[in-house]
Amino acid sequence: MSMTLSRDSVDGLRAQFSGEVVGPDDGGYDAARAVHNGFIDKRPALIARCANTADVADAVRFARAEGLEISVRGGGHGVAGKAVTEGGMMVDLAPMRGSYVDPGRRRARVQGGATWNEYDRATHQHGLATTGGTVSTTGVAGLTLGGGVGWLMSRFGMAVDNLTSVELVTADGEVRQVCADSDPDLFWGVRGGGGNFGIAASLEFEAHPVDTILGGIVAYPLAAALPVFGVYQEVTAEPPDELVSFFGLVHAPDGSGNKIVAVPVCHSGDIATGEGLVAPLRTVATAALDLIGPIPYPVMNTLLDAAFPKGARNYWRSAFFKELTEEVGGVLVDAFERVPSPMSGMLIEHFHGAVTRVDPTATAFPHRQRGYNLVIAGEWLDPAEDDANISWVRSTFDALTPHMADTVYVNYLTADEPERVRAAYGPNWERLVALKQKWDPDNVFHLNQNIDPTA
Ligand SMILES: Cc1cc2nc3c(=O)[nH]c(=O)nc-3n(C[C@H](O)[C@H](O)[C@H](O)COP(=O)(O)OP(=O)(O)OC[C@H]3O[C@@H](n4cnc5c(N)ncnc54)[C@H](O)[C@@H]3O)c2cc1C
């Protein structure tokens, strides 16, 4: 416990807390501070394991009074590892995972520590769904507040485009219901501004009728990567809103370490129409794996889960492409042939449809152009292999730099590129800085991809 933190003051917090206040000597401390990225090993002075919104507000007031740095943990998936603080207070929302669906209004409210698995299952009970994470173990809050890429984005927009209100604990410790009517400016900022404006104790979304979809993955040996890339370019040239597909260079899920090219697809409209649209992707060569068929929507968001086990070491780089040219395909395959870890992969995400029909300044999330986004996901287990894997990610990104735009999705930034946060916000940067000055002038919420109020 830090010199300034007395046992009496911690006991005072504990006395009123519904959840648990955990210190380094308490049981559960190590499990609570461990996040998805095994690279992160930080030791908070206290972990406030919140059970409800009042706990979140009390934790913020306590940390401010005691001068403790605050970190906020939603689903714990942030690769940058900002959910944990070294020596401060981790406000841990992991115990807050409830989802409450109102099928009549087609609205669903979810608590700030829930993962997409929990949200998707809750809405699916009513044949409803919202754009959300493609890996079901990812947190709803962190993913949404940064934007929210998902399989339904071309039909219904990003997760933020479906957000209707946020129960926000602001830097002064107050609980506010923030929506377009109550505070349009702040609501604009939380829709993309990450955790910069407060802690989302709960979030309410619009949910849409989506039940069974045509989805899955088709994969080929790496030798077919360039022909598959060509067909992918054709299929994604003018797709309907119902179809989203990604292009991946990954490793076979059977543990063989074999390199494959994989195309996950999700068609949320008529199944037979979808079968026709994805057919070219399934017949490029002899598929190593073809798991495309009608599946419940929540299952779509679990298909990539096994590729991202908790505790693996992660180091990522990401940016939007200027253009997806044939040359890009060659650079990607060339780099992937040299990948040191059999867990690493590269994924291209396609942005089109509803997500691109929103004005870039309508929400804080500005990436509304049609096009493609790249994620280079370095993933490995052995700390002795840190250097080799980090340099592979960096050199691959460097090789692709001539093809990349100066724009990046904030949620894919790692911890060592603060200079790119501005690029993540493009035309919205100045308005975000002004909003940060108003709502968090002391930068209480700075363990995030930070919008510095003095910038
Ligand atoms: C395997 C994997 C798959 C991913 N897939 C997708 C994807 O399909 N689509 C996509 O858009 N992104 C995806 N991401 C990126 C993801 O959006 C970010 O990692 C996001 O930060 C995860 O949110 P979290 O709540 O799980 O993370 P955390 O690590 O808990 O939080 C990250 C940051 O978000 C903020 N935050 C979290 N919860 C709250 C809250 N309740 N209130 C206020 N601020 C909060 C905090 O600043 C925190 O530091 C993926 C990441 C991983 C590791």
Task: Describe the secondary structure blueprint for this structure.
Layout: H1 7-16, E1 20-22, H2 29-33, E2 46-49, H3 53-66, E3 70-73, E4 89-92, E5 99-102, E6 107-111, H4 116-124, E7 128-129, H5 140-146, H6 153-156, E8 163-169, E9 175-179, H7 184-190, E10 199-206, E11 208-209, E12 212-221, H8 225-235, E13 243-251, E14 259-267, H9 271-282, E15 289-290, E16 293-296, H10 297-300, E17 313-320, H11 326-336, E18 345-351, E19 371-380, H12 386-400, H13 421-425, H14 429-439
Parallel strand pairs: 2-4, 3-4
Antiparallel strand pairs: 1-2, 5-6, 6-10, 7-11, 8-9, 8-10, 12-14, 12-15, 12-16, 13-14, 13-18, 17-19, 18-19
The protein binds flavin-adenine dinucleotide.
Fold and architecture overview:
This protein is α+β, with helices and mostly antiparallel strands and 455 residues long. The protein is 27% helix and 24% strand. The protein binds flavin-adenine dinucleotide. The site of flavin-adenine dinucleotide has 36 residues, from strand 3, helix 5 and strand 10. Flavin-adenine dinucleotide binds at residues 35-36, 72-79, 82-83, 93, 112, 133-135, 138-139, 141-143, 145-150, 194-195, 199-200, 308, 411, 447-448.
